Amino acid sequence: MFLGLVYLLWLLFGRKRNLYHVAARKIEKPVLSDGQLVGDFGEGFYLTDSKKLAFQWLDEFAQKEKLNSEELFLNVYRLKRIKKLSRWIFKDKTENWQNYINEKQGYGDEKHALVVGPAFTSDKKIMQYVLKTEEALGYIKYIKCLNINKLKKGGGIIDKK
Question: What is one Pfam family matched by this protein (predicted)?
Answer without folding.
Answer: DUF3990
